[in-house]
Specification:
The complex is a heterodimer of chains A (150) and B (222). Chain A is an alpha/beta fold and 150 residues long. Chain A has 5 helices and 6 strands. In chain B, α5 links the parallel β5 and β6. By secondary structure, chain B is α/β, with parallel strands linked by helices. Classes of the chains: A alpha/beta (150), B alpha/beta (222). Chains A and B meet through α3 and α4 of A and α3, α4 and α5 of B.
Chain lengths: 150, 222
């Protein structure tokens, strides 16, 4: 499958390399050429330098033929905007984004986006490790704990 | 009316000033504390709120729930998008307005239901574009193996021939003004016609005289 990944940070680079080794065509979008070092010398990804909220860049990355889009930059709002472009403008079937703010993640999850919030995942798994509970499926970690509700 | 502005740059500041002068209740959100301090000295403490307008906690404290209008005017399209979308979806704000810096983003903003999208780049571009085509001579076709051209051009208010009689203009050699479009009606050009703003003129001109025709009819470029 054709996959576009926006953001070559630790998570984006790792995801891209894993998907390549599973036989998928991966194109990375990254603003900072330095960040591409995370991929190592023989990574097998296509790379487009630029921002994933810029339609020209998305199109150069092959968004029109993409089966999946991942938004994994450090900027929540960039991820949110890029994900909506991918889904609404380019009709990409599977769209996944990281949103670091737990409240914002919840808001966009409720709008039908597959948002992953690392804080909720990590805090939930650490809680279960500490309490000696068995680990649950992702859905039982990836939501705003009631203690955090505003 | 309670208006919330997100983004305390120049646009936000100037908007807030004018809205306050019109006696509206205005709150300007700015996430940089130093900039928020500067804004508070200019607008008054009560009109400035320090915080990131994309965060739900800030939105709650700033009173998104009772806002009549939320306008996102930062220099970042992604921030303006999130502010407006959350104002609509989470807080049911009646009217949301976004500043868009990249005109090609306008489509997405409208698609997700943001009522009003303002793109300064888009506005300036269309003005420039209009000005550029205003002052160009457009070739429509070639005659006599390309030694003559049929050209079309629009007269702007700055044209040197504005208001003058056709008969008083010395056209370049072998050049003929033929036909004129004015207010949706076509006229055969004759000596007693006076050129008016927005006239579209069709002429036949020897190819080597097109620049002389431009000199004569079009405003001089700086």
């Amino acid at each position: 499958m054709n996959v576009v990944v926006f953001g070559c940070g630790r998570t984006g680079a790792s995801l891209a390399l894993q998907l390549v080794s599973h036989g998928h065509q991966v194109t990375l979008i990254e603003q900072n050429p330095e960040a591409l070092r995370r991929l190592g010398p023989r990574h097998g990804c296509q790379v487009v330098i630029g921002s994933g909220i810029d339609e020209d860049v998305l199109e150069r990355a092959g968004i029109r033929n993409a089966d999946a889009f991942f938004a994994l930059t450090r900027g929540d709002n960039s991820n949110i905007m890029a994900a909506q472009l991918a889904r609404l403008k380019y009709k990409v079937e599977r769209v996944c984004l990281r949103v670091a703010d737990p409240n914002r993640s919840e808001a966009y999850k409720n709008m039908g986006y597959f948002c992953i919030n690392p804080s909720n995942l990590i805090s939930g798994m650490m809680r279960d490790w500490f309490l000696g509970n068995a680990y649950e499926s992702i859905d039982l970690y990836n939501f705003l704990p009631k203690e955090m509700e505003i | 009316m309670y208006l919330i502005l997100v983004g305390g740059g120049n646009v936000g500041l100037q908007l807030a000033k004018r809205l306050i002068a019109k006696d509206h209740e205005v709150l300007l959100l700015e996430k940089d504390s130093r900039q928020a301090g500067r804004l508070a000295t200019m607008l008054g403490e009560e009109s400035v709120f320090l915080g990131d307008g994309c965060e739900i906690r800030v939105q709650k404290e700033a009173g998104f729930g009772r806002a009549d209008v939320v306008a996102a005017v930062t220099g970042e399209d992604e921030d303006n998008l999130v502010v407006c979308q959350m104002a609509k979806v989470m807080w049911n704000v009646d009217r949301v307005l976004a500043r868009v810096n990249n005109p090609s983003h306008e489509e997405l903003f409208r698609q997700i239901g943001i009522d009003d999208v303002v793109s300064a780049t888009g506005i300036i571009f269309s003005l420039l574009d209009q000005q550029i085509t205003m002052d160009e001579i457009i070739p429509v076709g070639a005659l006599a193996n390309g030694t003559f051209e049929i050209v079309e051009f629009v007269l702007s208010s700055r044209s040197p021939v504005m208001g003058k009689r056709v008969g008083s203009i010395d056209l370049p050699p072998h050049t003929h003004a033929l036909w004129l479009l004015r207010g949706g009606m076509g006229y055969v050009v004759h000596d007693d016609l006076e050129f008016q703003q927005d006239d579209t003129l069709v002429a036949v001109v020897p190819r080597d005289q097109t620049s002389a025709l431009r000199e004569l009819m079009m405003p001089h470029r700086p």
